[in-house]
Amino acid sequence: MRYLLMLLLVAGCAIPARAQLSVQQGAARLAGQNITGVTIITHGFTATNNGGGYMLPLAQDIRGRLGTAGANAWLFDYDLTSDGGTGVFATGTSVLPAAGASGLSGHVVLLYDWAPESNETSPRWGESSGDALFAIGVELGLFDPLTRSAPPVQFIAHSFGTAVTSEAVERLAGYGVTVDQVTLIDPHDFDQSDVPTYDQAARLFDLGKPAGYGVTMWDNVAESDVYYQTRGNQGGLSSLVTADPEGRPIPGATNRLLDAADELPPGNPYGTFSTDSDHGYAWNTFYRGTVLGARPAGTAASATPNFNYNTTGWAHSIHNPSRVPLPAPAFFGPGQDHEHTESLLSSPNGTPNTAGLASLGLTSETINTARFAPDYQPGTIVNGGFDDGAVNSTLVAGWNHHGGGGDSGARIVESGPERFLRLNGSAESRTHNLTYIPQNALSLDFDLRIGAASSDDVLQVLVGESLLATISATTTTAGWIAQSLALPLSVRNAVETLTVRILFGGTFFNSPTIDLDNFAFTLGPPPGDYNADGFVDAADYTVWRDTLGTAGLGLAADGDLSGVVDARDYQVWRAHFGEGSAGLGAVASVPEPAGWVVAVLFAFALPTSSIRVWRT
């Protein structure tokens, strides 16, 4: 997060008008390909709405390392360049599989842009951006919530973007998908007293665990490495406005302090008229250097002559063919700086707060490997209750930028303790961002109030292109009325938008006033419950086995809703084995397919060796 540094970097990364692909079109390029690994890169704060490309050099460097020796490495540059705009893939900077190609194997580097949201001065944007990142990843096929599987995946994030990444990883935790590595560069998820109001306005520190952290090592994270600095040197132009944002160590990670005696440049090399800083140096020189194996051209040298970039940073990446194992996780101890650590964990002098740690069930030793259970619940629609966001703003967190939008007049209204969305004659529609709808989502639920009726207008509710309901607006309601709309199979286990809109009739004398609130999905029994008894056990395996190869609609053992009972439905059952009302202890072990069933699995071109079950 470099509040003014972006002004220079954006000059080289601004997005001109050029060929673009939608998220769905980008997903089509990956359909039928074998994704061997995933790297997802997320930037931090940008002062301008088109500054989200500032980490493009890092994405290009990583793709360059992984695309050697004839291996495929694709770069998907997801760009969001204006308030109220829609994110797309910029083909000029992306490197994509050719249209119509299939059967290729390769690594996917996704560069995620949330620039207009990073500088909003109201809360919930960090969460909604992370939710959209999760949904986009599902749509691209980078991870599969239904089978709890993914190729080896590494998230890399800088500054504010570390909290956005944490939100995406929390959603994967909610669905039980393992994240192999989370790499955080100068995580800025706290309120630093000497920087502008964005820390207080964004309130990223409300998102995670323990209290005061916006970045969390959730219980699905296998490994994590953090590189942070607390010196805060910066160029002269930046210092006229703000102190340089700094980072801090994160519980559960291998934390490395970048200091002036080793990784950072000596003194302040940034110059009177520069907007660069230690905060930017952490990713642009230090971490990029570890990808390239040498200091990037045009960047300041570190304090250590001939610093060895091949022993840290990307040297620890799960995707590095010559990987150097990560050191053991460390939070306290020599070499750490707890200037910005929450007081619940650390005393002012940097020693462990024993009582505070004990209140969390932790000690100064166990915090080194701490993992936290997610609060996120599958089926949640981010900001579906309109609890956060600026009242009467044209932009609504969760309802703009990543597939969402609508009339500028369709805004959050506050009346007493209530906050809700209002549609009327000058505010006809609103669309929620792309969101993943679980396989077992039965209905879309919300509250409706018609405050002013009209003679022939109606409210339409759509998920994607599917019309769920047309509700008459000819009569006012006596307060809020709960609505529950059945979801068709076609929108379940899918990434879709949600739209509410007024469809006007032929009379123009009056228009309705319709208030909407508390959008959520209601979930049914867990996926894999093929005999509909409320839990997933060996009896469901029998249903799958006995109907394997059957095609049709509404099949009991069609766990992925594909219209055929096949090997993927076995993966669904296996991933959710033990869930449901009987509890995890209801069955002893997962039955394996008999020999003839294995032969059929191979006939369906889905070998059992491809199954990657969530590690608990």
TrEMBL record:
Keywords: Signal. The keyword Signal applies. Residues 334-353 are annotated as: Disordered. Residues 343-353 have a biased composition (Polar residues). The keyword Phosphoprotein does not apply. One of its GO terms (biological process) is polysaccharide catabolic process. It comes from the Bacteria. SUPFAM superfamilies: Type I dockerin domain. PROSITE patterns: EF_HAND_1 (PS00018). InterPro entries: Dockerin_dom_sf, EF_Hand_1_Ca_BS. Residues 1-19 form the signal peptide. This is Alpha/beta hydrolase family protein.
